[in-house]
Design brief:
Blueprint lengths: L3 H13 L3 H14 L4 H13 L5 H7 L5 H17 L3 H14 L5 H12 L3 H11 L6 H14 L3 H14 L4 H16 L3 H4 L1
Length: about 200
């Protein structure tokens, strides 16, 4: 008979293979068999979120994290849940809390900036992304999102520079290459394009 530690290991392996339905069923069985466990509840809620099921936010909100790393993971998951439920302002609050808990990785900065971009708060998103440049992780995503913000603000020259930085870090980024071509054409057609918006 499997113990809780083995059950969580099996669930995590399945989850990491993007088999969310199977991981959901396994977490559901484990929740019935074992005493309440923060990691198990977190995995259950994450499976629900990944499949678009309702109720994940409530499960995550009820968790009492045992440490700062767990709190960070819960805040990111709560933010992602809010994004999935088209609540970008609420998502921003969770991503801001996550950043306060862990400024060392890029992804919460990117997630926060993305939510801000949904709210059309491009200047604030730029500030967040620039802070994220000091973190470890996908710096190409930081530059990509900076480019998108500057493009939305009509600053095509700076947007182009940020997209080129993205390509320097990850040359296999087709939508960035297309965006650079579009911006170069716009700048060629109207050298003062960023001033006209």
């Amino acid at each position: 008979m499997q113990d809780l530690k083995q059950a969580k290991k099996q669930i995590l392996e399945v989850y990491e293979q993007d088999q969310f339905a199977l991981a959901f069923v396994l977490t559901k069985k484990a929740r019935q068999r074992f005493e309440p466990d923060v990691r198990l509840e977190f995995l259950h809620a994450e499976c629900m979120r990944q499949m678009g099921m309702k109720g994940a936010y409530e499960i995550l909100s009820a968790l009492t994290p045992p440490n700062a790393q767990a709190e960070f993971q819960i805040q990111v998951a709560l933010g992602m849940n809010c994004v999935n439920e088209c609540q970008p302002a609420k998502a921003c609050n969770h991503f801001e809390r996550a950043i306060k808990l862990n400024r060392a990785v890029t992804f919460p900065f990117v997630f926060l900036a993305s939510a801000l971009m949904t709210l059309k708060e491009y200047v604030r998103a730029i500030e967040v992304l620039k802070e994220g440049l000091t973190a470890e992780g996908d710096i190409d995503e930081i530059h990509f999102n900076l480019g998108s913000c500057y493009r939305a603000l009509g600053d095509f020259g700076t947007a182009r520079q940020e997209y080129l930085k993205t390509l320097a870090l990850d040359p296999a980024y087709p939508e960035v290459r297309e965006a650079v071509e579009d911006l170069e054409a716009a700048l060629k057609e109207s050298p003062s394009a960023e001033e006209e918006s």
